[in-house]
């Protein structure tokens, strides 16, 4: 096994806790869960509603993937965390699905949680594989 590489990227959102944006080993890349924070102004209020927050989370994940020289087509798995599961599940899925071709969606788990940092409604992490 190769030594892990710990990645931090200036274009990605400022971390809300002590973590790396991504950690890579043997071609596998673990992307830390992204929040719906503005990458240009972390003090800005979070977007209103699950649709806007899901879009911001996915766009933040794309920023990290781009910095790694990867794209959503390299994502093999994702985990989504929702604070209001019953209310937000369908709307989050609609936005999330729009980022992937219907025949090339990663494996995914979605769970309801009691709370997320900064009062976010959604957080999503991913695993990608280098070609």
Tally the structural domains.
1
Average pLDDT number: 97
Mind summarizing the main beta sheet?
A: 6 strands, mixed
Number of beta-strand segments: 6
CATH superfamily: RutC-like
Strand content: 25-35%
Shape: globular
What report would you give on this structure?
With 131 residues, the protein is α+β, with helices and mostly antiparallel strands. It has one domain: 2-Layer Sandwich (60s Ribosomal Protein L30, Chain: A). Strands 1-2-3-6-4-5 form a six-stranded mixed beta sheet. Strand 4, helix 2 and strand 5 form a beta-alpha-beta unit.
In short:
The chain has two helices and six strands; from the N terminus they run E-E-E-H-E-H-E-E. With 131 residues, the protein is α+β, with helices and mostly antiparallel strands. Helix 1 crosses helix 2.
Index terms:
131 residues, alpha+beta, 60s Ribosomal Protein L30, Chain: A, six-stranded mixed β-sheet, 27% strand
């Amino acid at each position: 096994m190769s030594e892990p590489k710990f990645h931090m990227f200036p274009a990605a959102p400022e971390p809300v806790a002590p973590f790396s944006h991504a950690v890579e080993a043997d071609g596998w890349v673990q992307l830390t869960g992204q929040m719906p924070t503005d990458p240009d102004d972390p003090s800005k209020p979070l977007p209103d509603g699950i649709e806007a927050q899901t879009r911001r989370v996915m766009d933040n994940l794309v920023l990290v993937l781009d910095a790694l020289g990867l794209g959503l087509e390299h994502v093999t798995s994702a985990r989504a965390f929702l604070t209001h599961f019953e209310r937000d599940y369908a709307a989050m899925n609609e936005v999330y699905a729009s980022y992937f071709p219907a025949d090339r969606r990663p494996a995914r788990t979605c769970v309801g949680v009691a709370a997320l940092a900064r009062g976010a409604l959604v957080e999503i992490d991913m695993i990608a594989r280098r070609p």
